[in-house]
Protein: Xyloglucan endotransglucosylase/hydrolase
Organism: Digitaria exilis
Amino acid sequence: MAKPGDLPVQQAAALLLACTLALLMLQLHPCRAQQPPSPGYYPSAKLRSLAFSEGYQTLWGSQHQTLSPDGKSLTLWMDRSSGSGFKSSRAYRNGYFGASIRVQPGYTAGVNTAFYLSNTEEYPGHHDEIDMELLGTVPGEPYTLQTNVYVRGSGDGTVVGREMRFHLWFDPTADFHHYAIIWNPDQILFLVDDVPIRRYERKTEATFPDREMWAYGSIWDASDWATDGGRYRADYRYQPFVSRFTDLKIGGCATDASGDCQPMAVSPSGSALSPQQEAAMRWAQQNSMVYYYCQDSSRDRTLYPEC
């Protein structure tokens, strides 16, 4: 039993412990307590949402897909037997490609929910690819958003990836957020909720994808590398693993478009980011970026002349 005078001391100790834990959580997840500054430009608002059948078709795992009654939202899931994927009906030579995605909470290690551009079916073994991948995790740890660029076979055989990874400033399991790629002849811009998080510029022809590509979405087992370098793998005791896609948007020049088709502007002025966009991107990289290949001293720098 506490003696008179002991209770305030115990309360003070408990309060001190609670404050210490709160500060520790802020240090572990600093970006969760902040929001990026407004980019001032919202390219997603310039395009209408598509019904799935207007822009896409099922590619694989049709038994692991369901379409909403209005035809605008697609649910994909992965279990021990299969994952699932879809593909744009047309090929493009540039454009805006976006989707609002919500991923599953809990144990999702090894699960890769991807939205990306690729031409791997057209150029097998020598393809180009632009990736946005939500990499699953274990309870208590955040999802990782990985952005990546492969050029003319750098994702085939001996892989030469150009990864930039983020722990986002929000919980991607709690609600839908819009992930988008603007791919133009001079640059690639990765956006989350219209906030630019990465710009990949065309510096040489050898390091920039310029052949036609299709847009894809998928969920698949990437246990060999996705979560902590493969330390944690997909555990099918927690299946099915579910990812939801909605607000699908495409705006750009298909390969059969007329020659006067113009790439989508990345900013109010056209190709150069505005000061507001630059500030928002700088915030995202300073507060949420956890890996950048150009800063990795273990990489062979001769393979990355753009760095």
